[in-house]
Amino acid sequence: MKTAVITAPEQVEVQEASLPEPQEGQVRLRLEGCGLCASNIPVWEGREWFTYPVAAGNPGHEGWGVVDALGAGVENVKPGDRVAALSYNSYAQYDIADADKVVKLPEALAGKPFPGEPLGCAMNIFKRSDISAGQTVTILGVGFLGALLVQLAKNAGARVIAISQREFSLEIARECGADETIQMDDHYKIIEKVKELTGEKFCERVIECTGKEWPLNLAGELTAERGKLIIAGFHQDGMRQVNIQLWNWRGIDVINAHERDPQEYIKGMRAAVKAVADGTLNPDKLYTHTYTLANIGKAFDNLKTRPDGFVKALITY
């Protein structure tokens, strides 16, 4: 099979490798594609804690495809089943997944890309956010995750305010149903605008999707008394300073909405399958760029620089 290997920071090669063999309780997938995740940026750029070359196919973890072979004892899927998987070496034509970490895709999704892990992540974050009709929800950062959460919050009957840096992202937010959009530029102007929009009460729910310190502190400022601040951004690149006095004074519930239990991920992926199949969630317009293994280096570069029009990139095989 062909597989991508990050051999050094910002260097990737397509190499030949033997087909992996599923062990007991595992399945082999013939992958149709894999999404690119912003969490890939540190290993692409290079950090002192990474060693190179990275394992073949890693860090691809948003793969979907067709079950190709079974290990002993697998009964929940069969060869030919189309599935999304929670696996970790999916920048390749084939990958191995534990049988209890694959989710069948129904006929309603035939032919459609389905990066299950981020779609499931959005469903889990939405569930943890406890959003209901009549609430005002602000979402900071409208990339793939933020746009999905705009859709989910709007479909739940909430009034949605979307805040993002790029005008293109704000257009996407409006297409996904946002009631109000605000440029993420001036800290105090944003606070005053949201204060005006909410009759000085601010927002019952604020979801931070950027993974950056400033928007995290801005999120606290926009959260109402006894509201919930949901941290959905990927804060894995260092310490953060936050205004704990404000959080404490307003009695804010702060929720770290990343799941680490694989079975919770799988629950989210199953919920995403249902939501996409029944139209509650529509990710199709958010898949803006497609690459092959042959130009995966360009895909990583664009993931890092995010050219105008870039929301979600897929690698297809």
UniProtKB/TrEMBL annotation:
It comes from the Bacteria. Its cofactor is Zn(2+). SMART domains: PKS_ER. Gene3D superfamilies: Medium-chain alcohol dehydrogenases, catalytic domain, NAD(P)-binding Rossmann-like Domain. One of its GO terms (molecular function) is zinc ion binding. Residues 7-315 form the Enoyl reductase (ER) domain. Keywords: Metal-binding, Oxidoreductase, Zinc. InterPro entries: ADH-like_C, ADH-like_N, ADH_Zn_CS, ER, GroES-like_sf, NAD(P)-bd_dom_sf, Zn_alcohol_dh. PANTHER family: L-THREONINE 3-DEHYDROGENASE (PTHR43401). Belongs to the zinc-containing alcohol dehydrogenase family. This is L-iditol 2-dehydrogenase.
